Amino acid sequence: MADIAFLLLIFFLVTTTIETDAGLDRMLPPIEPPEEDVVIKQKNIFTVNINKNGQLLVEEELTELQDLREKAMAFLDNGGDGTCNYCKGAGDEASSDNPGKAIISLKNDRETRYGTYITVQNELVGAYNELRNREAQRLYGRDFTDMEAEYLNPETDEDVREELKEKVLRVQELFPQKLSEAETTSN
């Protein structure tokens, strides 16, 4: 009887699949601080604050959640210093210089609801993805999100993955995702 119980136990352990949560895909800062001080102009920082009531303060202006993606895209795609030949933004010199220098800073209250926090994160990442999709369509005739999903799929053929890697990295260089999270406040 004990042998059968152990065989059943082994069978269920081997055949059971355990789903894991994907979580948020974020790159952590390096362990060592940079050798030289990095100077970031205030105009290259897009500030988003979430209070405990779920209200958004974007660039010191009360903003609705549905307008966040559009404002973030306008900031990232501005091309204020004229070095970005693929930017289609307003070219406002008071806003970000180019996508390589643009940083989105997110700060939230300690009592901010998790759902609100994730929704804001999704909108900001969605802004990056829309701009990357636009450039991938222009360069390669397909969406960046599709290329990235195919590249990250372990079942994709190695030759295809190698070709996609180059394309994905090129589009990511055009609009690097620089999403900074400031320390939470308890106000």
UniProtKB/TrEMBL annotation:
GO cellular component: plasma membrane
Keywords: Cell membrane, Coiled coil, Membrane, Protein transport, Transmembrane, Transmembrane helix, Transport
Principal place of residence: membrane
GO molecular function: transmembrane transporter activity
Coiled-coil boundaries: 51-78
Subcellular location: Cell membrane
A Pfam family the protein falls into: ExbD
Protein's recorded name: Biopolymer transporter ExbD
Taxonomic placement: Bacteria, Pseudomonadati, Bacteroidota, Flavobacteriia, Flavobacteriales
